[in-house]
């Protein structure tokens, strides 16, 4: 018998963005949330991710079974010195931009997406421009308070600009403000579902003293030399009162391990070093009573969605000093401690010590952090994508 029910056509999405975790994970989370929404309507999703060969997205997308294509991009190294801006590396990279746009244009023309979603990072520029050339709806997602460089370039071409904070809207150029929608910054759902005991098992943390609080120290995907040095300087003191999981960046593990070899036995058992925390991240966050961290937008979205007391050591050279802004914003809300300016080991001790000693203070801070979380950000971004597709 002939059925009247023809399968609805698949929704076709091109995602572009990446480089760091801050641009990659929101894209991944949006894809998964869109998939879930569409499958509840018995509709399929077809996705193509356009990224760079050496960014985090080149590992994340294929691991999730997402079709992945690369384009040449121009990574412009910012400098206040105009001579440095014209460095050989910058000039060479700028020359690659037209190549990237041409390739992206072909990819977009062939794939015919319903929407192109750009989540920032310099790779987003060619595919974003290609969306406009091929007259496909372009949705930008911005994680930070001020638009990043790629999103600034694309803002004039965007159908919608999804932003993570209300305070972004007045900072947008007036001509594009009408396209802004506040969604929040999507957090991977698994990050919100960690289990502390699993972290102990998976990482073999059997030397941890569970009567003590646990501190998770993280410098972002590459690690932070500054945070590593600070922690190294206070390590014996810190381990007297806490277990410590220290994510230090893949390039710094050996050096820190050599340093830790001098720790006496009970303290050494309470110290766990990792270059990068992969699938265990949710469980590590669940185990953590406090977090010492850079204040990138992705990390902040996760810590506020979870409600974790944090001590932030912002990256001073982040674009527009946005990490300092992020950290100060949460400190003003009583949800974190922000160590701005010159951070010494003494300042870190003075910030971390009272928190480790006072569970009630940690709880109050966690509560205030949670008030800033937006666990529904992925769903809101899906609404924006679907509405952009329907014109
Ligand atoms: C140096 C730089 O340009 N930083 C920017 C970059 O941050 P960057 O990507 O470095 O940092 P974010 O805090 O935004 O995101 C890091 C992500 O990686 C995850 N993670 C980290 C370490 C680890 O071992 N395992 C792991 O999974 C974190 O949980 C988080 O999801 O993009 C952010 C969002 O646009 C900006 O706010 C930052 O200023």
From TrEMBL:
GO molecular function, one term: undecaprenyldiphospho-muramoylpentapeptide beta-N-acetylglucosaminyltransferase activity
Main location: membrane
Family that this chain belongs to: Belongs to the glycosyltransferase 28 family. MurG subfamily.
Binding site for UDP-N-acetyl-alpha-D-glucosamine: 20-22, 188, 323
Chain coiled-coil ranges: none
Domain Glycosyltransferase family 28 N-terminal: from-to ranges: 14-162
Domain Glycosyl transferase family 28 C-terminal: 215-381
Location of the protein in the cell: Cell membrane
Protein name: UDP-N-acetylglucosamine--N-acetylmuramyl-(pentapeptide) pyrophosphoryl-undecaprenol N-acetylglucosamine transferase
Keyword Cell cycle: yes
Pathway field: Cell wall biogenesis; peptidoglycan biosynthesis
InterPro entries with a match to the protein in the record: GlcNAc_MurG, Glyco_trans_28_C, GlycoTrans_28_N
Catalytic reaction(s) noted: di-trans,octa-cis-undecaprenyl diphospho-N-acetyl-alpha-D-muramoyl-L-alanyl-D-glutamyl-meso-2,6-diaminopimeloyl-D-alanyl-D-alanine + UDP-N-acetyl-alpha-D-glucosamine = di-trans,octa-cis-undecaprenyl diphospho-[N-acetyl-alpha-D-glucosaminyl-(1->4)]-N-acetyl-alpha-D-muramoyl-L-alanyl-D-glutamyl-meso-2,6-diaminopimeloyl-D-alanyl-D-alanine + UDP + H(+)
Lineage, broadest ranks: Bacteria, Bacillati, Actinomycetota, Actinomycetes, Kitasatosporales
GO cellular component: plasma membrane
